[in-house]
Design brief:
Elements lengths: L1 H20 L31 E10 L5 E12 L4 E13 L4 E18 L3 E12 L6 E2 L2 E2 L10 E12 L2 E13 L29 E8 L1 E4 L3 E12 L4 E3 L5 E3 L5 E13 L4 E12 L12 E10 L1
Antiparallel strand pairs: 1-2, 1-17, 2-3, 3-4, 4-5, 5-8, 6-7, 8-9, 9-10, 10-12, 11-12, 12-15, 13-14, 15-16, 16-17
Length: about 300
C-alpha cells in the first residue's frame, strides 16, 4: 500500500509540474530513446540477459502551434557476445497541423552497446552509434516549402557516443549526438507579412543544426519483483550552439536562442506478461526549455507505448 501511495505522489507531482511550467521543449533528436541511454539494463532479470529483443512502439506528441506528431517504430537488438549487443531502429512520422498533413520515413538508428564492467550491484556500459536520415527534410505542400515542424527527419548523419552507469536501482547515462554530414535541403523562409499564417515559424532554409549533450537519471520502483515496476526520471538536453539558416540572399544567419538547455520529466510504467513479453507506457514533458527550437522537435507532452518480445 505504501508503494501505491508513492506511485500516486509521483504521478501527481509530474502532472502538477506540467501545469505550473506550461513550457515546451523535449528536443530529442534520436539519442534519448536508444538502448542504454533511454534505460539502464542492470534491472533486466538474469534469465532475460543475453537474449535478442524485438520492439515495436508508437509515440504521440503535441508540438508547437497545436501540431500533432505520431512516430511508430521498429527495433531489433541482437547479442554478438554476452558483453556486446547491436541494435537497429527504423522510425516513421505522421505530422498533422495548420499548414499540412505529412507522413514519411524518418531515420535509421544503429547503436552498439559494450559492457565494460558488471558486478552484483553495478554495471558500466559504453554506447556507440549513428543516425542515418531517410529523407532530406524537403517535404512540400503543393510545391510550397514547409518548416522543419512538418518534416519527418532532421536530414543529418549523426555520430552517437554515450556511457551508462547503474548501481542497484539507480541509473545515469550521458551521451553526445553530433551531426557529421548535413544533407538537409529544407527551403522554408518565413514571409515578411506578419499576418501570414507561416510567419510564426522559424526560417530553416539550408538549415544547419548543432549537436546535443544528454544527461539522464532514473530510479526503479518495483511494485512486483520482475513483473511490474515504474521508473521516474529526469532528462537534460543541452544544445551545443545556435543553429543557422540561409536568408533570401544566401547569407548564413544565426538563430539566436536556439542554443541552451531543455529539462524534461519522464515516467515509465513497465509490465512483464511473461518471460518473453513486456509492455511499456511512457509519459514526459519539459519544464525548462530553449528560447528557440527551429528544428520542430518542440513537444508540450509526449506519451508512448512499446511492446517487447525477447527470444
Amino acid at each position: 500500500m505504501r508503494l501505491i501511495n508513492k506511485i500516486s505522489i509521483i504521478v501527481l507531482l509530474l502532472v502538477s509540474l506540467n501545469h505550473i511550467a506550461k513550457a515546451q521543449g523535449c528536443s530529442d533528436a534520436g539519442i534519448c530513446t536508444i538502448n542504454n541511454i533511454k534505460d539502464h539494463s542492470f534491472n533486466i532479470p538474469n534469465e532475460l540477459k543475453d537474449r535478442n529483443f524485438f520492439k515495436s512502439g508508437i509515440t504521440f506528441g503535441i508540438g508547437e502551434h497545436s501540431i500533432n506528431v505520431i512516430n511508430p517504430y521498429l527495433e531489433y537488438t541482437g547479442f554478438v557476445t554476452n558483453k556486446l549487443s547491436l541494435s537497429g531502429k527504423i522510425t516513421y512520422a505522421f505530422v498533422s497541423g495548420e499548414l499540412a498533413n505529412t507522413n514519411n520515413l524518418s531515420d535509421f538508428i544503429f547503436s552498439s552497446n559494450l559492457v565494460l564492467f558488471q558486478e552484483v550491484l553495478t554495471s558500466l556500459n559504453v554506447v556507440l552509434g549513428a543516425k542515418i536520415p531517410l529523407n532530406s527534410s524537403n517535404i512540400k505542400e503543393e510545391d510550397n516549402p514547409l518548416p522543419m515542424h512538418y518534416q519527418s527527419s532532421l536530414g543529418t548523419y549523426d555520430l552517437i557516443v554515450g556511457v551508462n552507469y547503474s548501481i542497484m536501482d539507480f541509473g545515469i547515462s550521458m551521451a553526445l549526438q553530433q551531426p557529421i554530414i548535413n544533407s538537409n535541403e529544407n527551403e522554408f523562409i518565413k514571409p515578411l507579412d506578419q499576418n501570414a499564417i507561416e510567419y510564426k515559424y522559424s526560417s530553416t532554409n539550408s538549415y544547419n543544426r548543432k549537436g546535443d549533450v544528454v544527461l539522464r537519471a532514473s530510479y526503479y520502483l518495483k511494485v512486483n519483483e520482475n513483473k511490474f515496476y515504474i521508473r521516474p526520471g529526469l532528462l537534460g538536453i543541452y544544445h551545443l550552439g545556435n543553429d543557422t539558416f540561409k536568408d533570401q540572399n544566401g547569407v548564413e544567419q544565426s538563430i539566436n536562442g536556439s542554443k541552451g538547455l531543455t529539462l524534461n520529466a519522464n515516467l515509465f510504467l513497465n509490465y512483464r506478461f511473461s518471460e518473453s513479453k513486456q509492455l511499456e507506457f511512457s509519459f514526459g514533458f519539459p519544464f525548462v526549455t530553449r528560447d528557440q527550437r527551429p528544428d520542430g522537435l518542440t513537444r508540450e507532452l509526449v506519451s508512448g507505448l512499446e511492446y517487447t518480445y525477447s527470444f
